[in-house]
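Structure ticket #2291
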Amino acid sequence: KCHSFYHYAVDGEGGNDNDGDDDQMANFYSQQLVTFDLCPSNSCKSSSSGTCSGGGQYVVGMADFIDAYTESKMNLQEYNCEQIREGCYCSDDTDDEQCEQDC
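Resolution: structure written out below.
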């Protein structure tokens, strides 16, 4: 699930420094978060609790989640391609690139 939280904050303590300026500055912040479950591969979600048995629920910043998820997917794809390359057998006189494409 994705969540957005909006915060209104006032920075500084205000002007009592006799320069006539107001030192307080209002800021509006938006924070995007992702809630996700990490579950053991042999468990399934329980419909009553909404979580898995033996797993955990986590909340992280959306940018961190997207970076980690994308990197994980790219690593898995690279691993799978390497497994195909390693498991592909061609005779010694065959071009390696053509061999990988044929697999």
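Closing remark: The longest strand covers residues 25-38.
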